[in-house]
Amino acid sequence: MQDVLHVNGGTPLHGEITVRGAKNFVSKAMVAALLGDGPSVLRNVPVIRDVGVVTGLLELHGVDVVADTQAGVLTLDPSKVESAHVADIDAHAGSSRIPILFCGPLLHRLGEAFIPDLGGCRIGDRPINYHLDILRQFGAIVEKREQGIHIHAPRGLFGTKVELPYPSVGATEQLLLTAVRADGITELTNAAIEPEILDLINVLQKMGAVISVDTDRVIRIEGVPRLSGYRHTALSDRIEAASWASAALATHGDVMVRGASQPEMTAFLNTFRKVGGEFEVEDEGIRFFHPGGDLRSIVLETDVHPGFMTDWQQPLVVALTQAKGLSIVHETVYENRFGFTDALRGMGATIQVYRECLGGHPCRFGQRNFYHSAVISGPTPLAGADIEVPDLRGGFSHLIAALTAKGSSSVRGIGLIDRGYEFFTEKLTALGAEFSRD
Ligand code: EPU
């Protein structure tokens, strides 16, 4: 794998790119196929490494996966689902967070599941206590073993009432994927209601599930004894769309993002406008551009949906280094998502991180020792540097910084970006970026 990108920055990004299905939906919809008793067809699937990881895990469990990568279509046939060998599953340890979501479907199909140590981006502790508590509440027995977690449900799974301490995306998905075929009614309060979750509910409803999303973050599921396959087109990737939008803004560029969808991006679009970026919403996508003049500083707080997504924060912070004045960003979803700013400081940005909850409401990290607020003073010219990709979104931010900086940069560990950004080097070429990969 070619893992270093040499970027000659300072050229505005101009042109058109396309985003396909959302990474954080597609991987879950693939897991949902395990619940059906016939094949499912998922469209608008991007070519990203996370899809490959979930494909590998499904295949280990006997699911027949046929991919037409160019058309973006996956056919998933779970009719021969079987237990996988622990050693084979363990080979996937550390590569993704998705294995934890296999629990409910595998418990329904096979009565047991084995979960290896999880991977995913290092942006906080990322515990799985909510997931395990939920599975126990359904009646599963959870045993921690040396290589991972073994879960079984000798008497079956039963509907239950769950209240989440925090509206976790993964825990809400865990509950949905388990409750749809559990015996009886399940009610979840303080559920996450991200668009990717609502689209997963669409998929499950197509399969035969009975799910209602009530006001105030309450989701009710009436368990059914069997589910069929589904045919579904994934909603588009609003994190990728916002990442390219931030790249357009930071580089003084103009990028048409085909496939970007306004309803899921309302909070981002409001913020983009407040910073001084402009956008035009078309039927086929959204054009994001820097209209000239100064960008403006802002006060921003990340939050669960419908707030400003934590995953939009890192790319936008690079654009904020180019805004006039002091911007304040309070990260309330993950306790440790400002590590990427070290490299930006090395490139000339003025960013300080604080333990206090700055510029917004006190959050659950306020009394703890986490650097979860940042103050960015701009505009500061960025200079090319040798930088290392820390995680997926932080890595894309480094890439934006390298594209914005005058001079040449080497961005190492660029393979991490393939986890969630489809054909990103091809897209950079289409937008006129000057770079080479080796
Ligand atoms: N949390 C717990 N215990 C749990 C689960 C979560 O304390 O058992 C905490 C987390 O530590 C975190 C907060 O709850 O502080 C929110 O975590 P959540 O469960 O919502 O996140 P996730 O499901 O692990 C998904 C996305 C992330 C995205 C978050 C928030 C996937 C595969 N990942 O993670 O995406 O940031 O929701 O929207 O869907 C990315 O795409 O780069 C990425 C990190």
Account of the 3D structure:
With 438 residues, the chain is of the alpha/beta class. The protein folds into 2 domains: 4-19 and 236-437, Alpha-beta prism (UDP-n-acetylglucosamine1-carboxyvinyl-transferase, Chain), CATH 3.65.10; 23-233, Alpha-beta prism (UDP-n-acetylglucosamine1-carboxyvinyl-transferase, Chain), CATH 3.65.10. The chain has helices at 23-32, 49-60, 86-90, 103-110, 129-137, 169-179, 195-207, 238-250, 266-275, 310-320, 341-346, 392-404, 424-430; strands spanning 4-9, 14-18, 40-43, 64-68, 73-77, 112-116, 141-144, 148-152, 161-163, 185-189, 210-214, 218-222, 231-233, 254-258, 278-282, 285-289, 295-296, 299-301, 323-330, 350-354, 373-378, 386-388, 407-412, 434-437. Strands 17, 18, 19, 20 and 21 form a 5-stranded mixed beta sheet that branches. The protein has a 4-stranded mixed beta sheet with strand order 22-23-1-24, covered by helices on one side. Helix 5 (129-137) runs parallel beside helix 6 (169-179) and helix 8 (238-250) packs parallel to helix 12 (392-404). The longest helix has 13 residues, at 195-207. It starts with a strand and ends with a strand. The site of uridine-diphosphate-2(N-acetylglucosaminyl) butyric acid (EPU) has 27 residues, from helix 1, helix 5, helix 6, helix 10 and helix 12.
CATH fold name of the largest domain = UDP-n-acetylglucosamine1-carboxyvinyl-transferase, Chain
How many helices? The count is 13
CATH class of the largest domain: Alpha Beta
| Estimated structural class | alpha/beta
Helix content estimate: 25-40%
Instruction: Please give the largest β-sheet.
Output: 5 strands, mixed
How much β-strand is present in the residues? Answer: 25-35%
Corresponding CATH architecture of the largest domain: Alpha-beta prism
Which ligands, by name, code or SMILES, are bound? uridine-diphosphate-2(N-acetylglucosaminyl) butyric acid
* Low-confidence regions: none
Rg, Cα atoms, Å = 22 Å
Shape: globular
Query: How confident is the prediction overall: mean pLDDT?
Result: 94
The CATH homologous superfamily of the largest domain is called Enolpyruvate transferase domain
Into how many domains do the coordinates divide?
Answer: 2
Q: How far is it from the N-terminal to the C-terminal residue, by CA?
A: 8 Å
Total strands: the figure is 24
